[in-house]
Amino acid sequence: LDEGTPPEPKGTFVDYQTTVVKYSKAIAVTAQEMMTKSVTNPEELGGLASQMTSDYGHLALQGQMAAATAEPEEIGFQIRTRVQDLGHGCIFLVQKAGALQVCPTDSYTKRELIECARAVTEKVSLVLSALQAGNKGTQACITAATAVSGIIADLDTTIMFATAGTLNAENSETFADHRENILKTAKALVEDTKLLVSGAASTPDKLAQAAQSSAATITQLAEVVKLGAASLGSDDPETQVVLINAIKDVAKALSDLIGATKGAASKPADDPSMYQLKGAAKVMVTNVTSLLKTVKAVEDEATRGTRALEATIEYIKQELTVFQSKEVPEKTSSPEESIRMTKGITMATAKAVAAGNSCRQEDVIATANLSRKAVSDMLTACKQASFHPDVSEEVRTRALRYGTECTLGYLDLLEHVLV
User: What is the pLDDT averaged over residues 380-387?
Assistant: First the structure.
């Protein structure tokens, strides 16, 4: 971190801030795991120490860049010294892990390792607070994005409960008891969205406030929608899933919007990141509107299926946009996995044809839920398999093209069912 002149920074402080947070948190997670393994499986400490070493290597490089781009200079100095301090903490922890592997039953070394792991966790929080001083607004965006990804994971679990037929209200309330609360909270979220978008161009304090507020509102909205879904009763799991999917779409759009806001913070008005921000805000508004329409359709049995299908078509279009983007997936998977996922499309197609023939609302709702999952799984698997290291450029291009064509064909089928 101190030696020689640092390489010329290619990005802004915000870019480096995000990656420093990522690696710092990864180190904190590994330190916690080392505490656990020191008691249960000391033989696994070596792998965790290697992981920590690798993460710290990335952190040192990104920390150097964050320090070089931070304003004012003393904040850069603080970031650098705190990242160095964390490095010393990691050295002690790794040394204790080595000592414990030599003598796995030594309770004194175990105690020392736990102390060292706690020290590492504390030093991580000092690095994070130094970054916050660098830009309070973007740091709040990073924190809010973490909170929103927690909500999305929680909603996935709720969908599992609903599908299994175990999502019930604790008392005899009806959906009408929750409707107003859902609508009111959704409107508050729209206001937060406006503040987020304008926050990108205003002060770090205003941006921080908007990010915190939107995270609090989406948490509240997810809770009231879950209560509303539970009040429908487990004898209609498909409608429960439609409702939870609608709020999950809003949460995913908010996560993207927070990311776009962070990327556009303090950039000029003609910067490409500003166009991304406008696009993300548009998707966010579309998804909130879709949630409101779904809430209104829930009590009207004659339009439930139609509404669910419209929401699924919109969702698949958004997933296709992500699939077609230049972004490389975080992990790759085997071509076999991609082939396995196409079976879901075959099943969903048969279900869609049957629903088109029966035109019963419940069949259409079931088709909407199944289609959403089948197409999403197929697109994820197709993109991950196309970026597998063994796949040639030519095969990748073809796989991505067929993934798109398959999705467009499926959308066409759903449009026909809707008609």
Answer: 93
